[in-house]
Amino acid sequence: MFFLRLLQDVSASIVEMGDRCSVNQVYKSCNRDHRLVRVIAINLIVKLQADYPNILQELAPHMIDSLLQREKKEVSRRKYVCNSQRHRLKEKIWQTILLLLPCICLQTAEVIFPPILECLVMDNQPSVKYFQEWVLILLMDRFPEFQERLWCLLKKVTQTEDWNRNQVCSLLTILTHLGIIMADIQQKAAFLQQALPLVLSFCLSKNFSIQLYAQAALSKLWAECESSSLEDVKAMYPAVAACVQFQNSSSVHFSILDRLQANFFLLKFHPQLDCNFETIFYTIPYLTLMMPEQLIPPDIFLEENATLWARTDLSYSLKASCDRQGLRELGPGTWKATKVKHSHQKVSDEEVADATSTDDVQKKIMPKAGESIPGLDVESIQTTNQNRSKLILVTSLVNKVPNLGGLCRTSEIFSVGTVVLPNLLLTETKEFQNLSVTAQKWLNIEEVRPYELKEYIMKKRHDGYLLIGLEQTANSKSLTEFTFPPKTLILLGNERSGIPVELINILDVCIEIPQLGVLRSLNVHVSGALAIWEYTKQCMMP
Q1: What pLDDT does 191 receive?
Q2: Verdict on whether the full-model pTM lies above 0.90
Q3: Contact 504, 12 (CB under 8 A)
Q4: In the 8-state DSSP scheme, what is residue 494?
């Protein structure tokens, strides 16, 4: 970690030197896009497939094996969070495997299929899980002999409780997509004949998430039977027909769709029609809330090697852009099933607090649906917003969504003037909202990407703000001894690497929180909250 930080600091210092350093004159900043290395490598795969397919067929098994070995190393490590370094690495691994699938033969598939299937039992972030499921769908569609292993796994799941809900839902997703994309009508009929009763059994699962997935899968598979005119299959399962008819004619069906609306991979995605560079490298990362630096639009591939993509004889099986509008019309989000207690269900005595058991009571107000909170109307909210402080809290370097949500909640409570986030889309996620508790609705929030920070900070200096970094440096001041001016900008650092040196150099001052213990630093949410409180105490409290 020390050497990584040192490398970042040295690189930033070289960039700051500008034309005084010769390397900056030779290697222009416009070519420093970290995505360019991946784009060049991916375009090389496309060129090999077009001009030297035999060579790529020899290389692909070794490349996939190396990628799976790297994935195996990551499996042994602890659970990771969204947009962390591990998350970004794992997503790149599975994107590349997906890219190489058209170049493998049955012999290679027999080697890689078992370890890929084993990956389903691991806990992964949504984007990684979707790519793993996609790879397995395409493998089993191209090589039907692997489908028997899917049936064995599903039957094993029905007989044991060792598998968790995410793994079962992944198997149901794979099963559903396979039943839809099969081209041979006889194979499809045999597949659906076996799939329908199995999916129906999962509709009776004790787990709520599995119930939802199974019900949605059952509807999609039955719709496929009808669109493919598989009358023999339909005649075998009148019970399934009755279940689907009941779902479609009642509010249950719409409730399922509402709860699964963010899960585009099951409802909107098509494994074959959406198999292109745009979906792999841009759409799925975007829909699963990956940071902007992780997204690669198809235009970048075309611009890097326009001659390659303009060739009429290009034989690579994946197109650059997506011809369908289905996924483009969706917004980003993560899906998680939540079971809502119905209004007719009674609350047990143990859940009722005895308000008469103490002389002091909470004064928090929990209004019923449709009720207004006394004294909290539009006019009072507007007055509160007008009286907010001039403090700007910049969180563009913070990676973890819960920290951002918590900082927004703290900022709203202490009337911070502006909160700067790395991506406004994060405010729509459950991870953020679980911590922010609607604070984002009342705050003035701006979006500034990490690479835009320097320009933003310098503009605020011209506007009269004192630029402060919350960081431990050689010359940092103690928070308890520092006097905040009203127009203050506080920059928070990254959870692991802190504030980059190129930004520290343009700040007016760095402040640190005095510590009495052994640990090196506080959590960024806690640090930010302490700094906000100190500013509020000095500048806002009477």
Answers
A1: 93
A2: no
A3: no
A4: B
| Half-sphere exposure (Cβ direction) of 270: Cα atoms closer than 13 Å | 14
Token output for 256: 């399922």
The identity of residue 178, as a single letter, is L
SS3 526: helix
Strand order through the sheet with 445-447? 445-447, 418-421, 392-394, 488-492, 466-470, 509-512, 477-478
How far, in Å, CA of 445 to CA of 424, rounded?
8
Q: What confidence score (pLDDT) does residue 345 get?
A: 41
Total residue length of the chain: 542
Distance, CA of 450 to CA of 292 (rounded, Å): 10
H or E element at residue 133 = helix 126-142
Q: How far is CA 360 from the centre of its chain?
A: 43
Between the CA of residue 281 and those of 143, 298, 323, what are the distances in Å?
25, 8, 15
What backbone torsions phi and psi does residue 127 show, to the nearest 5 degrees? -60, -40
**Tokens 């990490």 appear where?**
450
Nearest to 416 by CA among 319, 486, 359: 486
H/E element, 509: strand 509-512
* Token pair listed for 336: 């998680």
Contact 35/293 with Cβ under 8 angstroms? yes
User: How confident is the model at residue 221, as a pLDDT?
Assistant: 92
Gap between the Cα atoms of 38 and 166, Å rounded: 30
